[in-house]
Structure formats: C-alpha cells, structure tokens
C-alpha cells in the first residue's frame, strides 16, 4: 500500500503593483494544474499563505478555456481552501512531506523574506520531504538556509520565471527584482527552456522547480514520481 503523504500549497497574499492599476495575486493555473496531479492520487492537502485568509487571484489568470482551472475553481473543497487559507504561522511542518510554492507576481513581494516559510521549508526538506515551486513562487527559495547554514539552492539546478519572460509581459520594471538574476546571484545553477512560456522544469534530488505557469503540471507529476516511484 502506498504511504500517505500530505502536501502544503503556499500562495501569495500580495495584490498591488507599484504603478499598474490591475491587480496581481496567485496565477490560478499554478495551483490548479499542480493540484490536479495530486488529486489523481487522492493526496490530502492544505493551502496556506503568509497572512492566511482569502487568496487573491490575478484576474489575467482566470481563463475559462482552461478546463482544469474551471474544474477546481468550482470545486467546493478546493475553493473553500483558497478562500480560507491557513496562515503559515499556524503550520506544523511535521504534518507535511511536500511543500509547493505557487507563483503569480504577488509572490515576489511576500515570499522571499518570510522567515516562517523558510523554516517550514527547511524542516520538510531536512526530514526527507519534497520542496517544489513554480514561476515566481521560486522566489520563496531564495533565502532558505539549511541547518548547516548553507543555502538550499546553492549549487543546485533550478529554474524560475526568466528575465526574457518578465520583459515579454512588460512587468520587468514593476517587480522588486528579476528572479533569474536573483537566483544566479545566490549561486543557484539556473537554466531555462529554449522557448519562453513553454513547460520547463529542473529536478535536483528533492528540489523540483518549474519556469512558468505551463510548467505547474510537470512539477506536480515529477513530485509524485519522486515520492512514489523511487
């Protein structure tokens, strides 16, 4: 019989750009596509955020043609977890074997310097769990240090939203920093796909990262493969 794992999906609470009038937040498919993979295994999960409460959803990510988005956005349980997310302050890392950081530009503001999220990540990782992130959610990993003082991403294969993609969506002047540059600065072995906006992931043992929204499903699939098939 398969072991029972529990996943913690972490989403942003941040909504405002410095100068743009439209709002940011979670890029919805980065939660739904990842979770759709977990749902196939009936994995229990919780949704958390830095402050708890309702998760703001980037209006540009609500795509009615995306059947997976539509399926989970209207699923009562998933919706309730999004509307009443747990605060990371109330999370016991011992309950989880998987932590996954979703993106959306909002994550660039409230993920990188959250010490509680860093501690949860360290504890899940150091007891043999999986750490995963996609797109701007990878910013949560920038400052995670392990018990020996080294950075989790130091000399590790990672990806995340690229400088070129940020320029294409014309938000390179809005974000507090460019994620690709920040990852390289932290001595991560950053790589990206040849063609922007297509699925691309990096796997370095129990660390799985995806470059952009379309990578979320592949991240979920890879996490399950690493947990169940190794």
List keywords for this structure.
single chain, alpha/beta, two-stranded parallel ribbon, globular
How would you describe the overall organization of this protein?
With 230 residues, the protein is an alpha/beta fold. It has a single domain, classed as Class I glutamine amidotransferase (GATase) domain (Rossmann fold, 3-Layer(aba) Sandwich). The chain is built from eight helices and nine strands. The chain has helices spanning 28-39, 67-73, 76-83, 107-110, 115-126, 163-168, 179-185, 216-228, and strands spanning 7-10, 45-49, 86-87, 98-101, 130-134, 157-158, 189-190, 201-204, 207-210. The chain has a seven-stranded mixed β-sheet. Strands 6-7 form a two-stranded parallel sheet. The longest helix is centred in the C-terminal third of the chain and has 13 residues, at 216-228. The mean pLDDT is 96.
Return the average pLDDT rounded to an integer.
Answer: 96
Strand order of the largest sheet: 3-2-1-4-5-9-8
How would you sum up the global shape? globular
- Cα-atom Rg, whole angstroms? 16 Å
Quickly count the domains.
Answer: 1
Q: What ranges have pLDDT less than 50 throughout 5 or more consecutive residues?
A: none
Number of helices: 8
CATH superfamily: Class I glutamine amidotransferase (GATase) domain
Record field, number of beta strands: 9
The quaternary organization reads as: single chain
Report the span from N to C terminus. Answer: 15 Å
CATH 2nd-level architecture: 3-Layer(aba) Sandwich
Structural class: alpha/beta
CATH C-level: Alpha Beta
CATH topology: Rossmann fold
């Amino acid at each position: 019989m398969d072991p029972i794992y529990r996943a913690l999906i972490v989403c942003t609470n941040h909504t405002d750009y410095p100068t743009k009038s439209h709002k940011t937040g979670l890029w919805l498919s980065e939660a739904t596509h990842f979770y759709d993979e977990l749902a196939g295994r009936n994995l229990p999960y919780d949704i958390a955020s830095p402050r708890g409460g309702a998760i703001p959803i980037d209006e540009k990510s609500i795509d009615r043609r995306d059947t997976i988005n539509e399926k989970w956005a209207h699923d009562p349980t998933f919706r309730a977890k999004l509307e009443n997310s747990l605060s990371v302050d109330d999370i016991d890392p011992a309950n989880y074997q998987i932590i996954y950081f979703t993106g959306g530009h909002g994550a660039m503001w409230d993920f990188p310097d959250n010490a509680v999220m860093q501690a949860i990540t360290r504890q899940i990782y150091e007891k043999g769990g999986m750490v995963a992130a996609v797109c701007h959610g990878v910013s949560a990993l920038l400052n995670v240090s392990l018990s020996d003082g080294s950075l989790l991403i130091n000399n590790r294969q990672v990806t995340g939203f690229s400088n070129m993609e940020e320029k294409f969506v014309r938000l390179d002047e809005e974000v507090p920093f460019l994620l690709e540059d920040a990852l390289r600065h932290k001595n991560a072995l950053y790589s990206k796909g040849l063609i922007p906006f297509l699925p691309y992931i990096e796997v370095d043992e129990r660390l799985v990262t995806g470059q952009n929204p379309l990578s979320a499903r592949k991240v979920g699939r890879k996490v399950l493969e690493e947990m169940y098939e190794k």
